[in-house]
Hints:
The structure holds 2 protein chains of 2 kinds.
Chain A (H helix, E strand, L loop, with lengths): L13 H4 L6 E10 L9 E11 L4 E5 L6 H8 L7 E6 L2 E2 L7 E4 L11 H11 L4 H14 L15 H13 L5 E5 L7 H17 L3 E6 L2 H7 L2 E6 L4 E7 L14 H16 L6
Chain B lengths: L8 H4 L7 H35 L10 H10 L1 H35 L1 H16 L2 H12 L3 H25 L3 H9 L4 H38 L4 H11 L3 H30 L9 H5 L1
Helix pairs in contact in B: 3-11, 4-5, 4-7, 4-9, 4-10, 6-7, 6-9, 7-9, 9-10, 9-11, 10-11
Bound molecules: adenosine-5'-triphosphate (ATP) and magnesium ion.
Amino acid sequence: MQSMNQFRLVDNDPVEAAGAAPLVRLRGVGKVFPGRRRGQASVEALCPTDLDIRHGEFLTIVGPSGCGKSTLLSMIAGLMAPSSGELTIGDALVEGPHPGLGIVFQKDLLLPWRTALDNVLIQAEVRGLSRKVHTARAMKLLELVGLGGFEGFYPHELSGGMRQRVGICRALLHDPSLLLMDEPFAALDAITRDQIAVDFQNFWQSDKRTVVFITHNIAEAVFLGDRVLVMTARPGQIADVIDIDLPRPRRLTLREAPEFTRYTAHVRDVFIKHGVLRG
Amino acid sequence: MSDVTHLHGKDAAADPQPTAGAAQQDRAAQLARRLYPVLAIALFLIVWELAVAAFSITQLILPAPSAVFGDIVANRDMYMSFSVPTLVEVLAGFAVAAVAGIALAVAVSFSGFMRRTLYPLLISSQMVPKIAIAPVLIIWFGTELEAKVLITMLIAFFPIMVATMVGLAAVDADMVRLFRSMGAGPFRTFTKLRLPAALPNIFAGLKLGMTMALTGAIVAEFVASNRGLGYYLLYANGQLNTTGVFAALFILTAMGVVLYYAVEAVERMFILNSLSKDTDPGQATI
Ligand SMILES: Nc1ncnc2c1ncn2[C@@H]1O[C@H](COP(=O)(O)OP(=O)(O)OP(=O)(O)O)[C@@H](O)[C@H]1O
Ligand SMILES: [Mg+2]
């Protein structure tokens, strides 16, 4: 039985970062998809948006399908260019995938011909980093997410939850300062999903780095986030930003506590006000 | 403070080591799977043998398998001398087809220019019946080995190229995005993602190509040759030596089966157990 604190992988001191410039800055960042065929209207996936993502914060984004969450994330990831506005990470304008970035998608996207360990190490191989140096770190990460002993297993020999944990290790291998997660637990069953959320929160607490986490699930957004960004669709925009002032580590039982449900009710009210939900 | 290890009870409870008993059972099942095809062929030959005897079919119409095998054993040196040139043509033609097919597929999948220029040319060229142009190729290249390898190659090449192209193109778009987010350029994406992902398709193409290569070599020998099993087939047919014809067919069949499984053995070396993902092992490997 070891405390996670022994496994601190980075020394991002949150105190030092407090009050400093944000890690990610969006100024008027918007995205319009032009209509492909004649007569097809263009889609404004994201209205021009201002947003600061602070060093070391856990930012969750919640919103209905089609409100531009993935579009926003793809632009931060440098996988898609904004149609307007200015987007910076650190002091650098985002013009392509930033090297200090890790991404976890809804699909685990593991390579079926590679073992769990080799799937984590693909991050090093693709970036031209030494496999040797990173093998120890990959093993440590797998151990941390509860997959010690499974490093030689192929993806088809792992459960969905285990596969997604491997995907998280892959995203963390090169010690990114920003972790982007697009509905990472959405494909999992409810029980596994709760478990992996608790585990991930605990892991994050011992290894604080900036996380942007997208979800459809209001409770998950409140449970994990330092701040919750509430988004609404047509056109996609930020409807509200809520600071979640709940002590960590948060436990699953917290979800029934009145201070927790106050936050989820707040998010729900925002959705009702914008016509996303009908009460 | 949190302790993760106990939180993973559900996942970690799975035993990483398969039990010894299960492994033994697995091996027995595998042996049985190997045995079934042999038994099926044996049964086929027995039924054939009995049918020839029961209906007293003459050797001119349909020789019994025992007569065919007898002929092969009695004239083994002659059959060997006819088999070797055919085998050489098949192997050489297949090798050239594999290299050219895979290389062209890679070129076409890498470059939009190639896709717009070379690809339509290749497709159109495949619409010309290759058997029909074999005589022309003989005129151009003579009756030596080169012409026959060329005909074999032309017939075997297309399935290999198409299968490789399909495999290279069928990669999940999200997977490509993931690689891009890791900073991978087209080359790394190719070597680490597209090529390994396409391997099952490539090998399917190679297996198809191998069977086509055998047909190609025989066609080439039909058109012009004084060597090889294709030549012997025509010769024996002209002599009304049906037993000889069947002997040549048996040898060709055996050659084809061995070559096919040789490709499959190489495939298994490359693809290992990852292929077993979602496929019934009994179907994947016999
Ligand atoms: N490549 C594209 N071309 C055209 N339109 C697009 C494209 N990608 C997204 N869109 C449109 O932009 C809008 C926002 O899409 P986005 O994928 O960002 O939504 P989302 O919030 O992630 O939804 P979900 O929760 O279902 O994943 C949608 O209306 C979608 O139709
Ligand atoms: Mg999305």
